[in-house]
């Protein structure tokens, strides 16, 4: 079903493009199998993109698909926000009214920002996530509409797309998961210069494996001949084909124009300029038709008939006669809805518009604006204000353009088109000084500025001031991600405020600057927040004061948790309640509840977080609810209550996805991965970590997801993958904004990777950096795993000669850190005992009694992998101290249990360690997997007997010459053996080879003693 397909070409024959059509039809077939498809179709102006889309759409309709076309609209230099999506959704609603109504059920008020026919768009909350919420709802709407029937959404002329349309398209193509949907977008490739705003989007989409990009080439001479034959309905003269091919260079539209011009008797040799050729057809029209063409060219991509009549000021019969002449000459064409006119090809419109004189252009735009002001019903309501602002701006009338731009900015904000809002507000700033004073004194009041206090006594009636305008622009820039532009505006505002005593407004701008500096990775934002606190200190309570305190408390919670952060959070809650700032209060209570748990007040803190979550859900404060869904299960995990955390996390993911809270969703995915890892559900944990990487809008939650994947890879023995993921996590976290919750887990994984690769000195260096930074209050949840990793690395390297120097000092530093670090929950008490046991093992003083106490602690917890690891250590200690069968029997059972967990999780290092210990002790483990693992590690690695001897000496730290002397071989032969060993072990150096040998327990400690 086609709804509707508009044909704008004059050639009755479709020429060439077989490969491109095959690709499009293949996408349609795949979409029919519920595999969403995305395609980008590029090509120079006039090359035939529209004709190809027409042919594909017609074919798709014949196969039962619904086709919805939407084109980007150009008005002067402006694009209408979301225009192609609004048009496409309108077409879908006309074609599938019941299906679209059902898919939009419950979200009509949000989706009305794109499709006003769905109802009245609610004011809702405006924040950084507002646009993302709309995008998520749009993507899910299309998926639901296309659940049972193939839908093709074709968006034309992306080179004219507004920023909001580009952002929505990028989101859609990144997140489509299901549905029988094809999204096809076209653009002019010759228009995409280095600074064109579409260029970064194309680069981003090129990196998506799910997006196919097609480039239409010009016609060959043979194809040009076939096209001319179709236009003329006769075989053309070969000389004519040669001439047209040479002049058109294979551009389909120019071929068409030249062929028609020749057939109509125009002198195709008149000029070598193809632009002039396009104007020849216009100049052949009657004067009234030429005048109408010029009016339509300046009116935008499409001009409504009634608006055209008002601007042209011709008698109706004369206007219709002029339009008939333009349509008959294939210059203009009626719109599909039959309510207006457009140029058959944009190239002709651009040629006519470029031919206008400067004064003529301004005069036409003024007449458009005056007509629209006189009768606002001349254009659709959703485009009226934006078009009026554009017409007045192009008319170069600041007195009219300034208020029109400000009115249009309000409409853009209400649609969550924050990029367009920012552009319009910047235009208002540009026009401000040139607009008359009486105009500025009658401007609208301030629109939306978060908690910024507008100038004047009554914000609802006081005209907008320049500082208010800058506040609106700063907020819009932050919301749409244009942080650089927002920072520039913020700095300018602060320069203005230097000469005025206005601490509240200055403090507000400093808070904005803090957020922007962090978002741009230019600092941690604390200096800016400190300035804001200094400005409001001693002032009466206000929303700005409460907001400053809430931001300072949230910053301190993440960077320097402790008593000062706690006090700031309490003050923020108190001040917010005093001034009735409910959202700030709820947000500050999330911070306060989190800090309460971290300080040891676990039950009260968790209860507070639960209360805030419920209140935020009930009151519709989505961004606070998203934060509560992040922090509440995270704090449950911090005290070892992983099984309680998981259902809250899954509920939080569904909530965040429903409201388009991308970063909240990503953080919850990362937290879910951590909980699932603890519970021994590693495959699900890896999927959750991938969810964090795939859903995040900013870098830090992606860093958390990458770090969780590194953790899983390390535990499964894939050290190379762990190192790669660790590097990705570090890149996402950056160095500009260090936080303990990121730095400490990164250091822990780095220590583990270094230890596995035999780089014990690097592991110590990582530990020293972490100890130097310290463990702020509440960060013991990250500190204990780090100290355990370091202690384990030292214990495992006890027999490595290269680790001997500095070992005693490293162990002393570790012991001191263990002594100082708090526990606060049974989980971390168990970790403390485990870390102390590893320190005993590193010193050679470990006993079964020590490890038995550790196992007892973990048997009370729901952490199967940790329990399996300490059971293996207890089994080893029992076997070392065994005096009879009782110890051996207990060790056998411990190893059997540990091996079963290792098999289930795919924890290869633990599984191999269990099997090797059982083999050495001549214990029989009953599982088949354990029996398979009893193969000697050297045999499993394919090492010969001689290579095994060489590896033993490499692990003991011997050089090639020393190996040669001990084994009575030449140094050259020893070198060959070492190279072979490195290849079989898949390692890069002798240190890594020694680490592998030690990890697999291939040689007893005494075998590595260099004094033997």
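^ Assign residues to that structure.
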């Amino acid at each position: 079903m086609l709804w509707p397909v508009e044909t704008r070409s004059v050639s009755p024959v479709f020429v060439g493009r077989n490969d491109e059509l095959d690709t499009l039809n293949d996408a349609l077939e795949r979409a029919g199998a519920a595999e969403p498809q995305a395609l980008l179709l590029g090509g120079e102006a006039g090359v035939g993109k529209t004709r190809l889309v027409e042919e594909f759409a017609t074919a798709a309709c014949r196969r039962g698909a619904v086709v919805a076309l939407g084109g980007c609209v150009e008005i002067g230099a402006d694009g209408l926000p979301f225009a192609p999506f609004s048009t496409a959704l309108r077409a879908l609603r006309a074609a599938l009214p019941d299906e679209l109504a059902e898919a939009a059920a419950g979200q009509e008020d949000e989706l009305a920002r794109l499709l006003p026919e769905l109802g009245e768009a609610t004011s809702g909350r405006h924040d950084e996530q507002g646009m993302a919420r709309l995008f998520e709802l749009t993507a899910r709407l299309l998926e639901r509409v296309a659940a049972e029937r193939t839908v093709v959404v074709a968006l034309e002329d992306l080179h004219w797309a507004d920023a909001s349309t580009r952002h929505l398209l990028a989101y859609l193509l990144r997140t489509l998961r299901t549905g029988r949907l094809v999204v096809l977008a076209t653009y002019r490739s010759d228009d995409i210069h280095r600074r064109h705003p579409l260029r970064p989007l194309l680069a981003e989409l090129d990196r998506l494996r799910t997006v196919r990009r097609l480039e239409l080439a010009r016609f060959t001479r043979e194809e040009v001949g076939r096209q001319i034959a179709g236009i003329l309905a006769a075989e053309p003269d070969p000389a004519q084909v040669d001439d047209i091919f040479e002049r058109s260079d294979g551009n389909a539209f120019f071929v068409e124009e030249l062929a028609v011009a020749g057939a109509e008797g125009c002198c195709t040799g008149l000029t070598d300029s193809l632009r002039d050729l396009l104007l020849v057809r216009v100049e052949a029209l009657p004067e009234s038709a030429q005048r109408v063409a010029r009016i339509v060219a300046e009116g935008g991509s499409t001009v409504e008939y009634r608006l055209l009549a008002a601007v042209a000021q011709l008698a109706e019969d004369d206007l219709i006669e002029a339009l008939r002449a333009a349509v008959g000459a294939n210059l203009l064409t009626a719109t599909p809805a039959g309510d207006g006119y457009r140029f058959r090809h944009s190239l002709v419109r651009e040629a006519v518009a470029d031919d206008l004189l400067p004064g003529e252009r301004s005069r036409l735009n003024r007449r458009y604006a005056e007509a629209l002001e006189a009768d606002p019903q001349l254009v659709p309501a959703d485009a009226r204000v934006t078009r009026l602002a554009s017409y007045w701006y192009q008319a170069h009338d600041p007195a009219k353009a300034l208020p029109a731009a400000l009115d249009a900015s309000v409409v853009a904000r209400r649609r969550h088109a924050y990029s367009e809002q920012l552009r319009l507000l910047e235009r208002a700033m540009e026009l401000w000084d040139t607009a008359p004073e009486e105009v500025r004194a009658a401007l609208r009041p301030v629109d939306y500025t978060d908690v910024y206090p507008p100038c004047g006594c009554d914000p609802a009636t006081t005209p907008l001031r320049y500082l208010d305008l800058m506040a609106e622009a700063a907020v819009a820039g932050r919301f749409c991600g244009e942080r650089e532009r927002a920072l520039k505006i913020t700095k300018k505002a602060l320069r203005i405020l230097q000469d005025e005593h206005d601490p509240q407004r200055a403090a507000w701008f400093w808070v904005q600057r803090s957020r922007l500096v962090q978002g741009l990775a230019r600092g941690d934002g604390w200096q800016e927040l400190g300035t804001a606190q200094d400005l409001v200190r001693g002032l009466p309570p206000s929303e700005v004061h409460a907001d400053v305190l809430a931001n300072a408390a949230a910053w301190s919670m993440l960077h320097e948790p402790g008593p000062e952060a706690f006090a700031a959070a309490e003050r923020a809650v108190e001040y917010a309640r005093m001034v009735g700032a409910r959202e700030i209060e709820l947000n500050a209570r999330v911070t306060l509840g989190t800090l309460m748990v971290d300080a040891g007040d676990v039950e009260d803190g968790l209860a507070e977080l639960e209360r805030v979550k419920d209140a935020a859900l009930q009151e519709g404060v989505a961004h606070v609810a998203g934060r509560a869904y992040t922090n509440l299960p995270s704090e449950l995990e911090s005290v070892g209550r992983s099984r309680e955390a998981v259902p809250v996390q899954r509920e939080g993911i569904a909530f965040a996805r429903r409201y388009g809270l991308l970063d909240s969703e990503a953080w919850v995915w990362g937290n879910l991965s951590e909980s699932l890892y603890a519970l021994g559900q590693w495959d699900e944990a890896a999927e959750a970590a991938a969810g964090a990487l795939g859903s995040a809008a900013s870098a830090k939650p992606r860093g958390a997801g990458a770090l969780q994947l590194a953790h899983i890879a390390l535990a499964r023995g894939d050290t190379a993958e762990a190192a790669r993921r660790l590097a990705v996590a570090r890149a996402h976290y950056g160095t500009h904004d260090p936080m303990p919750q990121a730095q400490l887990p990164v250091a822990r994984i780095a220590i583990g990777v270094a230890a596995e690769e035999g780089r014990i000195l690097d592991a110590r260096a990582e530990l020293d950096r972490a100890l130097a930074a310290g463990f702020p209050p509440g960060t013991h949840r990250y500190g204990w795993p780090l100290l355990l990793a370091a202690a384990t690395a030292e214990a495992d390297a006890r027999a490595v000669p290269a680790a001997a120097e500095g070992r005693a000092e490293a162990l002393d530093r570790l012991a001191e850190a263990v002594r100082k670090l708090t526990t606060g929950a049974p989980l971390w008490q168990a970790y403390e005992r485990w870390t102390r046991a590893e320190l005993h093992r590193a010193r050679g003083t470990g006993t079964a009694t020590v490890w038995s106490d550790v196992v007892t602690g973990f048997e009370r917890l729901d952490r199967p992998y940790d329990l399996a690891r300490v059971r293996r250590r207890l089994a080893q200690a029992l076997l070392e101290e065994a005096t009879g069968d009782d110890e051996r029997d207990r060790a056998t059972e411990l190893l059997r249990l540990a091996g079963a967990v290792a098999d289930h999780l795919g924890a290869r290092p633990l599984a191999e360690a269990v099997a090797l210990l059982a083999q050495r002790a001549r214990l029989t483990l009953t599982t088949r997997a354990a029996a398979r693992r009893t193969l000697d590690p050297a045999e499993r690695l394919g090492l010969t007997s001689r290579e095994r001897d060489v590896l033993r000496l490499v692990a003991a730290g011997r050089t090639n010459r020393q190996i040669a002397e001990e084994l009575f071989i030449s140094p050259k032969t020893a070198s060959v053996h070492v190279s072979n060993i490195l290849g079989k072990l898949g390692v890069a150096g002798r240190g890594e080879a020694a680490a592998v040998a030690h990890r697999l327990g291939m040689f007893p400690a005494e075998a590595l003693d260099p004094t033997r």
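The first helix runs from residue 18 to 32.
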